[in-house]
Design brief:
Four copies of one chain form a homotetramer.
Chain A lengths: L1 H17 L3 E7 L1 H4 L7 H11 L6 E7 L5 H11 L7 E5 L2 H9 L6 H16 L4 E5 L15 H18 L3 E2 L1 H12 L18 H17 L1
Parallel strand pairs in A: 1-2, 1-3, 3-4, 4-5
Helix pairs in contact in A: 3-9, 4-6, 6-7
């Protein structure tokens, strides 16, 4: 009996030691690259996690690179995701695939967007990694679908929704969620300043908004 | 008395002779170029006019050229419109200004679209010509705003709506009318085949639909 | 006699007063807009003119606006050129017609570039204004034709050369002159810094180089 | 002695059996897709190989898909190349990476072109596969560098030349070879019809021209 009492703290300690944290990687573009900076959505997810006393259960890693399109994720997924052995990967891509069409002539064809997206999923699935998908939130926050890329962004969001359905994966439909939020909070039909600083990149409200969705999804796995 | 009776047909004939027809010019792109062909919307306006016994009051002229953007109209308006001394000009432009951005890299900047559009109006107004404006109907007939150019087409339609309001001119809002029609008649969310053959150019239903709007507007002046 | 002597200076003064200066308008884009600033090519032409004691014969006016393409010149030529009754107009346009294809999707089709260019010339000719044409010098100064827009810039320069020949107008072939200069002075195949600051806009050497060509052409009329 | 004579054909047969053919895969876009059709460059390489009595030494496989860009090759290289265990892979890509910028807004950024190209090479090298690289021959055959994409095509060809040098790999510089041929055989500066049907895809002369280069390179390994 005495022995057991003495051992108890050690056993509990071992329990904590052996409890592997869930490693969550956020895989995306500049929006995700900014997510690990002060006030960024990944930092906020981490804070919420701690506040709920779950910091022993989760570890959050940002893997966002500015200017990335879907095929860039595919190219670097070995080095930036797979070697880190994540439990969960949240894919958040698509803005540049659409945007760079008009700004550089180097966007991504819709059929190839789908192909590369599915190829990323296949490789993650092969390693039994849990996956969630995000639709690209916005290029401009106007609510009457008169932002230049709205049609194309809706088209690519539809592709992602379809991929999520086909692969039976959770979808964080930021495109829809942002629009709903703007319909309530952007009565002046402004193109920025509600959830973003420039129509694309998240302001404080936007980072918290995305963080809320991400954290809810992570806990839901 | 006898004399008068004899003169009557002559007087009536003179009346017809002196009654100037209202010359209506439809000024636009390939959609309008096709309008003067069999089954085209201008041919249909002409038929409706005749059926209503008003062929002595109106004369319809097509001035559409394939691939035209707003600045092409401005360049050729002297030769193709002003020299013909029209009473009414209906401007129907905007599809290529948006579309050619992604297909050739030669679309029209939004601010310049507005400038050239206003410049056309100014020159028509200076000649006391009556004017009506059309918004560009569609590049793709999907109803969920997921046609690639929907955002930009909405943006340019907003510009035209604003020009119509500023200049106090009648607006034929084909963009809105096509969407409303598709919401009722395109439950499968198809990208063509409802009012267009290819998402842009009018099929028989589309030509009649546009003709109805045009004829109503012409009579309204 | 006494009277005449007293009047002589006045008569000479009147002679100078009545000698109309040749008004030279430089009509173009941001390169020309910068031409009237300190160190700009128009300021330098003016200085050379003064240094040669010809300031009573010439007056130089800048009519350059940033971002302008050929059709922008056409649109504003009444207000910015014709109302000023110039004797000579030097057209220097084309960079944005090519460049904006990839950066905004709003460049100018080659056939329309030619049409608008010719339309500008026709209106100037109708007023008996002397005209000189410039080819667009550079978008990147590499000498092995590996600047992204080199092919298109050569194509549009060929169009201008052809217009100059057809209309029997003097050509300031800056495209060729810049290349020749770079072949001698840019042995490292740099994309900027020889005659331009950024591959497009003129540095001090470039402004003087263009000024030399312009001044030579103006005196040649 | 008698036995040996009887065995001889068997031994010779075994020798043939055990002589492994060199499998050569041509990896590319529509130009290579057409290479396996009648008169195509791969068919011609095969014919030359047979004519030289070397058909026991080489086997030729086409792996070209229309519209492919460098990242498409990367995505499908496992299925279409690596599983086939080639001895030699000849990479012939780049036209669409440049061309699709202006025709669809979906070309490839220069830095990413280089990254994906190098990634393909790395994976081939890891399997000890011999590699040769081709520069993209032409988008238009004009010889004065006035084909729209000449500048960009030269830029991407420079990237490939640099990759070949860095990786110490044989280069089939079709870009340079086509230009040299055209300088001799295209005195009218036509944009097609010398080595291509449409400025891009090979005519009979072009297919033989490319076949000659390919066959020379294959034998040189």
């Amino acid at each position: 009996m005495k022995k057991l009492i003495l051992l108890l703290p050690i056993i509990i300690g071992m329990a904590f030691t052996f409890q592997k944290k869930n490693k969550v990687i956020f895989f995306g573009d500049s929006i995700t690259e900014a997510g690990v900076k002060a006030g960024g959505y990944i930092v906020r997810v981490d804070s919420m996690c701690k506040a709920e006393g779950k910091s022993n259960s989760y570890e959050f890693v940002g893997a966002g690179i500015s200017g990335n399109k879907v095929y860039d994720l595919y190219l670097r997924m070995e080095d930036d995701v797979l070697v880190k052995n994540p439990d969960i990967v949240i894919i958040y891509i698509g803005v540049n695939d659409v945007w760079h069409k008009s700004s550089f002539g180097t966007g991504t064809d819709a059929d190839k967007f789908e192909k590369f997206y599915q190829a990323i999923i296949n490789r993650l699935k092969a390693k039994n990694i849990k996956i969630a998908l995000c639709t690209p939130a916005a290029i401009g926050e106007k609510t009457d679908f008169s932002n230049q890329q709205d049609g194309d962004l809706n088209k690519y969001s539809n592709i992602i929704r379809s991929i999520a359905a086909k692969n039976n994966l959770p979808l964080i439909d930021l495109r829809k969620l942002f629009l709903d939020y703007n319909l309530k909070n952007n009565s002046e039909n402004k193109d920025r300043g509600i959830l973003t600083t420039d129509g694309v990149h998240l302001n404080a409200t936007g980072n918290q908004f995305v963080a809320d969705q991400m954290w809810k999804t992570v806990k839901g796995f």
